[in-house]
Amino acid sequence: MSRTRKALAATLGALTMTAAALATGGSASAAEQASPCWRKSGSHTYWCYNVAGAPVYSASDYRTIVGHMHSNPSWFTCKYEFGPNHGGPHPTRWLFTQADNGAWGHMNDNDIYSETNPVPTCP
What we know:
Elements: H1 3-23, H2 30-33, E1 38-39, E2 46-48, E3 54-58, E4 65-69, E5 74-76, E6 78-81, E7 93-98, E8 104-108
Antiparallel strand pairs: 1-2, 2-5, 3-4, 3-8, 6-7, 7-8
């Protein structure tokens, strides 16, 4: 899929979430409105819509930025519940992935538009 089509799909997804919030009086949480992350047939990774350019943090300390994720949607292998409360529907959730520069690390759940509950917990 071309970058333009991916950007359009992400924009339409965000607009749909906004329209749903307005239609429900804003009572539904972002996680309830978001479409879930999905797995492609035969794959062990999950794809989720995310903030383009979101930072990916070190797997060892969750504070050091090791890269960024400019793609959207992006793939993730598993999730962790760890660390201080960052707010949002899953305040301590991080998803393990590979940044666009090849570095492995975690993206904060707040930088992901899709509902991340379907992503399995890391072993």
